[in-house]
Amino acid sequence: PDMDYVGLAEAAAEKMELYRRDPGGWRGCRHTSEVSVSWRPSAEFAGNVYRGEGILPASPQDVWECIKPVAGGSRTKWDQNVKDFEVIEAVSDTVSVCRTTTPSAFMRIISPREFVDVVLMKQYEDGTMLSAATNVEHPLCPPQPNFVRGFNHPCGCFCIPLSGEPDRTQLLSFFQTDLGGYLPQTVVDSFFPASITGFYSNLAKAVKALKA
């Protein structure tokens, strides 16, 4: 039976909106000049959902240009956790099924992973842009032999304009990923805060380079 990709994508976007409006229960775990990272137990799977929040020194359009989930986008260049990104099927103007592969990480303790997600892009009336995703299966994307298949539970990024500050953008992101395989929980729990901190730091460099 065909998966309802649009329905799954819209449900992931709704979850992101709920997370954004729900400030309760988050516990801070890492703080840098670029981002504060917090977490709480996920309601979707046996792991945690992580929340990253930071202000980037660029317009929402420039930030979006760096993070938008499109074929040939810049993310594979600046995001050290994204090795390859391909669109498997464009379902509509705003919804696509994508495959992302990640390099080995954490001193090679974490081997390369692949993720197949349906991704939705949405713009709100106030200019906020959202990219939301969740794991799906797709007939053109069977598991590949050299990768461990991981699963993104509903996750996403909001690019939020700051009133009166056209060259600054609030980026609010939610990650909840089951890396799959047999990783010690301690590795998983240290990997995500470090990974999110790196994401914001590399993104800040990417938006500065875009403006240069």
UniProtKB/TrEMBL annotation:
Gene3D superfamilies: 3.30.530.20
Keywords recorded for this protein, A-Z: Lipid transport, Lipid-binding, Transport
Keyword flag Transport: yes
Chain ranges of the START domain: 9-212
GO biological process per UniProt: cholesterol import
GO molecular function: cholesterol binding; cholesterol transfer activity
Span of the signal peptide: none
Record InterPro entries: StARD5/6, START-like_dom_sf, START_lipid-bd_dom
Role description: May be involved in the intracellular transport of sterols or other lipids. May bind cholesterol or other sterols.
Protein name (Swiss-Prot/TrEMBL): STAR5 protein
Organism: Atlantisia rogersi (Inaccessible Island rail)
Gene: Stard5
